[in-house]
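Researcher: I'm comparing several assemblies side by side, and this is the next one on my list. It has 677 residues spread over two chains. Same procedure as the others: predict the full complex and return the structure.
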Amino acid sequence: MKEEDRLEEKNPIEDLLRMDRIPHIWCPGCGIGTVVTSFAEALRKSKLDLDKVVVVSGIGCTGRVAGYIKLDSFHTTHGRAVPFATGLKIANPELKVIVFSGDGDIAGIGGNHFIHAARRNMDIVVILVNNFNYAMTGGQVAATTPIDANASTAPYGNFEYPFSLPYLAEASGATYVARWTALHLRRVTKSIQEALAKRGFSFIEVITPCVTLYARRNRLGDGLNLLKYYYDKSEIQHGADTRTLDISYQGKLIVGKFVDIEKPTFLDCMNKHLAKVLGDKYQPYGENNGRD
Amino acid sequence: MKADPKGVLTGAHYLDGDFSLAEGALAAGCRFFAGYPITPSTETAERFSERIPTVGGVFIQMEDELGSMAALIGASWAGKKAMTVTSGPGFSLMQENIGLACMMETPLVIANVQRGGPSTGLPTLTGQQDMMQARWGSHGDYEIIALSPDSPQECFDFTIEAFNLSEMFRVPTFVMTDECVGHMTEKVVIPPAEEIELVERKWYKGPKDKYLPYKPDKDMIPFMVKAGDGYHFHSTGLTRDEQGYPVINAECQDVCVRHLVDKITKNADKIIKIEEDQIDNSEIIVISYGITSRVAIRAVQQARKTGIKVGTIRLITVWPFPEKRIKELAKKIKAFVFPEINYGQMVLEVERCAGGQAPVIHVPHCGGWVHNPDDIFQAIKEAAK
């Protein structure tokens, strides 16, 4: 058979993947891959100049995303993807910077950077894959683990209050906040597309099954079952009050787009303010491709 | 290439060391500063925040030093010359991403206006106690470059030099000053832009599909590109191959780590600068760096008056350590005297290089103030016995 006829073997998003790095390290039944597919689809639809799109990941299972996307991509330290992205973005405002990482990375060890980037309305997109535990290290309890769920460092079940991430994001100043499950493929794609088109701090949480650790430890079935379970347990409530979005163990998941507002970004504010105060002395920043 | 006049405040000024660090950076073309307030280095950040909007750069006060370092690496990969400034406790937090900067071979400059430690220690008082941390502070094997200025003028000059070295070798470079120099106000002469020689990292200009971010060139330093230039490259903190792709095995680790270390150690002769005075025919050599070298002069003069033949070496480059020269001299002299404002850090390097051929008399000081020159004088006398 000729190479071009073997359509069934071609990955549909292969042009955006580092195919020389495939197969990837994710477990069968993991939800991260579907989020990557949605991201690739959204990128394609966005019509952005892909040379200007940069992906930054931290550490963990989702932290490996940067290594598979065929764009300028950085696999950074644990929790520091957001400030790394901040540096990229304000050093060259022409870039579209996407942080793609997990719940432990962004909301656990990187929580402080997350809230401050949202507070500044840093013009970046944060895609957070929430699998309710630290998966890469073997399924430890996380800042997102629902109460009563079992984890390797919560062998009697978790008793700590978890973060409600959309609430945290909105309270910190994010201008776009959405939550979906990994099976809401089209909706995840659409949210990422909207976030890419937006200026400001955009945050998308995607609930995914961790089949090897969280699901196995809590006897929640295989990946596909859990993917479907999350989907079935979800209820779309666009514009829902983010104070009402707590996630209980295997309980209802309120999903949707909760926040979509316009607000000047960090660089907008900086340029406007400094131009006002300094007048002609101010050298407007970032207008010449962010270069000197 | 020459400095951009926009950032160069040509003229004779009365500046403190902290301000001079900022002016040196601006003259070197630094247009990105991310930092977090910490005594006694804060004035550098303040100076940046005031000056950088007028020269076409950006200042951001980050939420902590972890974020500052991460932002610096991002900014450097976006093509900016980037700098931060800190002191001991902040330096500890930066170590994490200093390791990442080394692994990603990212040019950037960190100034450490040292204070007494450990922990919160002496926020407002001097120390030279982060010297080993500069070299070994992040985990794993790697090399960095560190310079030690002894005056505000040198804070200016050495910051430019630090940027040049960092760009040339794609390595984080430190300006290891201290509270005394940071808060000392002296005359600083800033030359015209056309007299300031700058080095820029080697930009890759070949075909896009052939770019390998970590393939060493003949001088061992790989070519660099900017994020956004269309190369679709990958960089990671994991052990990686020339393409920047993670490879988790001992063979790749060997190549990767050797490269990170060798690119500095094998270029040490190009990097190292020391200042020598009256070394020939000396029986005693006083080695010092930073503020301590200014204190040591008094003791040396006193000793010379009493007829002791004393030479001096001032370390301008502290890392990589000028081991070749110290080893050479160890064979010829009676003893080294080594004062520093810590309880025994760089002296370990001197002892290593002296290799038992010449005794090394350490004059420690735990921080809070500079040495009393008499303590150094007594050590010289003892060494001469």
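Model: For your comparison table: Chain B has a mean pLDDT of 98.
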